[in-house]
Design brief:
With about 400 residues, this protein is of the alpha+beta class. Helices cover about 50% and strands about 15% of the residues. The chain contains 13 helices and 8 strands. Helix 9 packs antiparallel against helix 10 and helix 10 runs antiparallel to helix 13. The radius of gyration is 21 Å and the shape is globular. Bound molecules: flavin-adenine dinucleotide (FAD). Flavin-adenine dinucleotide binds next to strand 1 and helix 13.
Length: about 400
């Protein structure tokens, strides 16, 4: 992290480092390094989440009364930076970072009691049922229907691009509970178990060869009304609140960790002359951009800890953070040179020593996987629209 830390912050950083030295096993570090997606494979991610939970650090951003840490913005930043620098597996945000803030802000005490502890300790893994084949950027066009029958809703329809639905215990889902009128006015926010009869999960394999995405089908799926958060037909406000959390968060720690790896990869590539100079210059340019990103992250963290509304910050962070990520990927492929073209069988990619430099082998899968970064969580074109609308209105 740039900038000086005071004594207390240095003590905290050492405490995090000691913890990582003890608890972050070589296997988990390898899983973190070899993760080409936004977050790691389920089993490694969940194993790491449970270790953090035992230390009380699995959900540091939550309010203290629900198991958060009450850290200062700088402590949050130190924690995220130390984890990224130590190659900790990035964890999926759908439970801790997306649905949990909604449950905390809009859920009843019973719902909070039912869902939050299991997210915190890693017993429950969640997936996000927002997008549909005809409803992505125009999310309010969603058609997946839920019809009330007594104490249940009966769901029919489909969701698509559902990340890690194959592992999820529960889904938070936007459903249409009314038609006619404004499309936004007929949407409800439902949570239910993924093993409910009538739910089918079909894989979608991405260009990088990973199975992260799925299409989910609902065929007369009967779920309790008690799983609805907020009032019927009032889900749109909740949906938007969740999106702010999906797009928010810190980008700089991961970017800086990648930058550090690329610096090392460049040194190991042993290039000379103009090519080496050109790549070093690009790295320096990216470092300046990561510094600027870190300043933005810190401003957002401070505002979050003060309890201020997030405003347009998540859209700005998402746009800059994901585009920087892609620039870093492009540079990693350049540094890897011909090794970037080597495709190892999937099994070889996961474990054990590699016949080539590790960073080079992962450069291409990260590059391919991160093409999606400017699409998910709301495309960057749409974020630019939101930023422009905000600027024009103020
Ligand atoms: C890797 C990955 C993981 C995902 N995980 C999930 C998940 O777990 N759960 C979930 O619900 N969804 C998930 N999504 C879906 C994601 O939210 C949508 O892909 C995204 O919102 C875009 O919707 P779309 O794909 O339908 O594209 P479209 O909305 O059809 O957009 C197509 C193109 O048109 C542009 N465009 C559309 N509207 C405008 C506009 N108003 N102004 C300017 N340009 C516009 C877009 O920027 C884009 O380039 C995931 C997507 C990806 C790629």
């Amino acid at each position: 992290m740039s900038g000086a830390l005071n004594d207390e912050e240095l003590r905290f950083r050492d405490e995090v480092r000691d913890f990582l030295a003890r608890e972050l096993t070589p296997e988990l570090r390898q899983a973190g390094r070899r993760c080409s997606g936004i977050f790691t494979e389920y089993h490694d991610g969940n194993r790491w989440h449970r270790i953090l939970a035992r230390r009380g650090w699995s959900v540091p951003h939550w309010p203290v009364e629900h198991g958060g840490t009450g850290w200062t913005p700088v402590q949050h930043h130190i924690f995220a930076s130390e984890l990224a620098a130590a190659d900790a597996p990035p964890r999926a945000p759908m439970g801790p970072g997306m649905v949990a803030p909604v449950i905390i802000a809009f859920g009843t005490p019973e719902q909070q009691q039912r869902w939050l502890p299991a997210i915190r300790n890693g017993d429950d893994y969640w997936c996000q049922g927002y997008s549909e084949p005809g409803a992505g950027s125009d999310l309010a066009a969603l058609q997946c229907r839920a019809v009330r029958e007594g104490d249940d809703y009966v769901i029919n329809g489909t969701k698509i691009w559902t990340t890690h639905a194959q592992y999820a215990d529960r889904m938070f889902c936007l459903v249409r509970t009314a038609t006619g009128g404004k499309p936004q006015a007929g949407i409800s926010f439902l949570c239910f178990d993924m093993d409910t009869p009538g739910i089918t999960v079909r894989p979608i394999i991405s260009i990088s060869g990973d199975h992260e995405l799925n299409q989910v089908f609902f065929d007369n799926v009967r779920v309790p009304v008690a799983g609805r958060i907020g009032e019927e037909n009032q889900g749109w406000t909740i949906a938007k609140y969740l999106l702010q959390h999906e797009r928010g968060g810190s980008y700089a720690p991961q970017l800086r960790a990648r930058l550090r790896r690329q610096r090392r990869a460049l040194a190991q590539a042993n290039l000379r002359g103009a090519e080496a100079g050109d790549l070093a210059l690009k790295l320096a340019d990216l470092e300046c951009a990561v510094d600027a990103m870190e300043a933005m992250d810190m401003a957002a963290l401070r505002a979050q800890v003060r309890g201020e509304p997030r405003g347009i910050r998540p859209s700005m962070g998402k746009t800059l953070g994901t585009e920087l990520r892609q620039r870093l990927d492009e540079l990693a492929v350049e540094i890897a040179g011909q090794y970037a073209a080597v495709g190892l069988p999937l099994d070889d990619r996961l474990d054990g020593p590699l016949p080539l430099p590790e960073d080079a082998v992962y450069a291409m899968s990260a590059y391919l996987n991160d093409r999606a970064a400017t699409i998910y969580a709301g495309t960057n074109e749409v974020q630019r629209n939101l930023i422009a609308a905000h600027l024009l209105a103020n």
